[in-house]
């Protein structure tokens, strides 16, 4: 069975450590992850801005890259959501690509979905003796309904104190191009989100989408606050090494 | 009605009928039809099936109704007989120093004998003489007294219907409203009340069907709850039986 | 936005003003939180909320899909009830009809209860030009009418005003100084508006729902002013959006379950009135004459449009405003139209069919989907926002800089080798601006981002560069796959072949 990593452009360029953690964590369960190199980006930045032709050009690289994969796993609920919810819409007038989109849609999983729903892993055996708070990113939790999976995984991490984030379900203000186009509104949103993170007095902020994490951590660093920001895959892998 | 009004109404009526075909035909066209749709099958009518099974015992209906009515700021009491209800109304009227009461012209209230119990108070019976200005009577009343047509325990709601003998103003314009709920009219769900209206012939429906759930309220000023903005600010629900 | 004062043209400029108004932001946050928590509590207490939402959606979908039938049925029944029914293709026609009726009554005064349709039409202004006083009687609407403003929230119109500002407005009206005490202020309004109700020749209402089978119109409210308006004056004029229809009273139970809980967290609004025609001859009160003006005003543009028809399912509860993190920060006026929040961002351009002018409010969303999650009839507003943006681009209204940017995006992302070179260029080029692993510069497109954030620098090695060595390292760590996991994976594949995986 071929399990392929859809790294996402953001993790590829800025957060390669997230992909590495996923690959290493899955290796512990005998899952050998492959990385088809022709993949680029899911096309969401262009899609959300209304530039669907441009989004399609980007999306085609994924459809080609994962054509013969059995499972496609990604460290982003948002990019997974793009494939799950919008690829069929994007290619609704192109029967060949539509068929490919539907096949990709069926085999694509966000990382925790794959771990919990497919592999049945709910406890990776990690130890992480820190105060942690969790920001559930909007697309993962709302579009894909990923709510229980990360919670189960985190609750089973030994020594970790999980502190509820106030107004956790509120968007951090990233929204891709929104953060640039409507920077002032986005700034108000991320400032409030960071404030809520600081209220928890957590040492670590964990999430499932590096876009949101980059946004919140960018503001925390700007404020000079030493909160460590991680993807859950990183946290779990670090915890496994500690165990 | 003045001549000019009648002419206008006739003219508007003509225009309306002429426009109807175009307006609704336009909707049909947008929906991809050449003619107006025939009566469709309505597979999702009303509440979900699991909901229509819900039915509470009388005791529970009374308890839940009272809880709900009180939770929004109303006063609720339960009496065994109309006589006890009358005593209560008379006592409260004296306490509130009510000078004018307006009540519906309903048989239960005609038999209540409130007039004898409160000889000093001016008690008007809605519309018993159509020549008078009944809205003004209601606006001047301290208490409006009604017997409800239906009540709903799940939401703490009373339902009053208008007629020749039942003014819409009586439950609306006075400072205080008192509503008698004969216990057999207290249902569990709103749907049980709705079947009366869906089941009735259109021409038998009253002009006004009012569902009332507590005292008039507003939070429009800084979210600060204000009671009695336009409708009655003090409301009593008196379950009898 | 006062009358006569021109408001800034873009949502960016309008939100800039809002973001710098501390009181406004606090007030909006406080109110939306209260309403949001109320909804959460009420829907949880009621239980089976998803089933109710689904039922609400199905009823609305069904009704709109057969709107020609149901609207026609409503019209025939309302007429049989003695209502004068009129049709208005646009706002102008609706205003003209109202004016004709008002003129024939020689009306001097019209009392109004809250109606979003009437806000669409700007009817108060038209009445005043005719010398007819139009009085808003909902407490919040009355306050903003005195202030010469427009509502900034569907449910709480004066969300942006504090009690001191309100006391000042009402004192002017009272001719004496009123203290900033809610109950005293509300008491003044009660007395003042009582006079207005009794004087007015015409009562004007909106319409929450219209029941096709009986020709009844339904109003939800808490204050009792809508009952006043539809009971006291001799003539009632109801402005009704043509999509307000539901088939039966049984369906009203579903709407009555969803609307108040979603709007304010109430089990039911204090008053829900179903009015079926003018007063009967023998009745002692109620309007002698009743008009219903059925308004299109852009609504039919959504019909038959697969991406936007569901907009007509909206029951105007305001839950999407209360859930929206953007609304939370900028409030209603920044949206610039009659309707604000997520529903306004879609409805305003959709009703006016002028994507080019209004597209910018479709950009004022991070597409987080909170609106969809809050919507009691499950309207996918977050998707519609993307569709609007797409239509703007397809029609050629895209901004030049963005167009070029997106062409560049496509050029890079259509080819992984090009993407790799661009990342490489970035890794080298950033050396000019990286300090302690961060990019803090505020030049060019980074200006907005870096005004409250730092950008992480690119690591020396991207994932795709790291891959070849990583795969070698991991090879040595690989554990054998357990039977259990293998079986689970095989099962997942099999399930998929049978079409078994559901999505989100």
Could you explain the architecture of this structure?
The complex is a heterotrimer of chains A (243), B (241) and C (504). Chain A is α/β, with parallel strands linked by helices and 243 residues long. Chain A has helices spanning 9-13, 16-27, 44-49, 52-65, 77-90, 95-107, 111-118, 138-143, 148-155, 178-181, 183-200, 210-222, 232-242, and strands at residues 3-5, 33-34, 71-74, 108-110, 131-134, 161-163, 204-207, 228-231. Chain A has 13 helices and eight strands. In chain A, helix 2 crosses helix 13. Chain A is globular and about 50 Å long. The mean pLDDT of chain A is 96. With 241 residues, chain B is of the alpha/beta class. Chain B folds into two domains: 1-38, no CATH class; 55-240, Rossmann fold (3-Layer(aba) Sandwich), CATH 3.40.50. Helix content of chain B is 35%, strand content 21%. Chain B contains eight helices and twelve strands. Chain B has helices at 3-30, 49-52, 58-71, 82-95, 107-110, 114-117, 134-140, 190-199; strands spanning 75-79, 100-103, 122-125, 143-147, 150-152, 157-161, 176-182, 186-187, 208-212, 217-218, 226-227, 234-240. In chain C, a hairpin with a 2-residue loop joins strand 11 and strand 12. In chain C, helix 3 crosses helix 12 (249-263), helix 15 (341-352) packs antiparallel against helix 16 and helix 16 (355-362) crosses helix 18 (381-394). Chains in contact: A-C, B-C. At the B-C interface, helix 1, helix 7, helix 8, strand 9 and strand 10 of B face helix 2, helix 3, helix 4, strand 1 and helix 5 of C. Strand 9 of chain B pairs antiparallel with strand 9 (271-275) of chain C, so a sheet runs across the interface.
